[in-house]
Structure prediction request, 378 residues.
Amino acid sequence: MAQPDLPTATGSSRAGHVPDLQLREVTKRFSEVVALDQVSLDIERGEFVTLLGPSGCGKTTTLRIVAGFEAQTAGAVSIRGERVDGVPPYRRNVNTVFQSYALFPHLSVFDNVAFGLRVKALPGAEVRRTVGQALDQVRLGGFDRRRPHQLSGGQQQRVALARALVNQPAILLLDEPLGALDLKLRKEMQLELKRVHREVGITFIYVTHDQEEALTMSDRIAVMDAGRVVQLGSPREIYEQPHTTFVANFVGVSNLVPGDIRDRTARSAIIELAGGWRLAKALQRPPSAGQKVLVAVRPEKVRVASPERGLHGRLEDFVYLGSRVTLVVRLTGDRLLHVEDSATQLGNGAGRIGEAVSVEWDEADCLVFDAARGERIE
Prediction:
């Protein structure tokens, strides 16, 4: 396959600086299907980076190419500055934790974790010391004689994590490892993974379709769609400054309200939203009058307004979530809009299903997107 040069994909590299992982224009085709489309990505040493996206977006294919389980059709993969194209998985300085755990059922916890070390023919004393340290890191000290069937799902996942860490890889790859756990245990394991990552200090690359999981654990998130990385940034950047309507909709919940540009100045625009509410929005490059836009606002930024203000509609539903409440409002024009606040704020003044309700938000709390392209207007 063609071997491209290795320019910087995500910013200018410092002289002599080598990221733990570099992907350069990596493409993967399965017959006529393009699973990855010229993906370029730099991941720094010690980062926790999550590949986030819907099923079929290419995130697991990316992980498998890094691990060596799949060969890319084009492009280059480098680990700590060394090209690994064509290098088999067992010779790459990475380990993978799978959703299925893949533990040996007939071996004890100790022997499962020690398996890779014994393949390397390390001395017995070193194996015992290293396995003990790994089990302590995942808080399974004292569980070394148990078999996998004697452990809970969370404990089995910790064994799989210890087995991957014990070989001290440059990069740990995690392919939806918490997907088989119940919600409470999954949240507990998210915090455990963050703790382990901080303590061991190696690079974690995590694959998930769970937005909350990605926001909770990651240093940076690469949002993927149709085989491409559509946005890369910190959890706060991804959530608060999405580049496209896809990212705004996929990461968390966004209300997308259609509107038209009615007037503009050099640095602002008047947007008329469906239902007649006019909103002034500061923009560096305001679009021309008449252009159709989408205004995106998170549910927690929306509030119930007095009847003469904002957008008008009727209360469609009232969802109680313990500490928080979500109102679902059907706006004029038959579009649903979500309002979220604390139960004490909305619980007593929510009204009855079917009653008229008005909503509004501050200009600074919304983003404007081109309706046709789905790209943000700065």
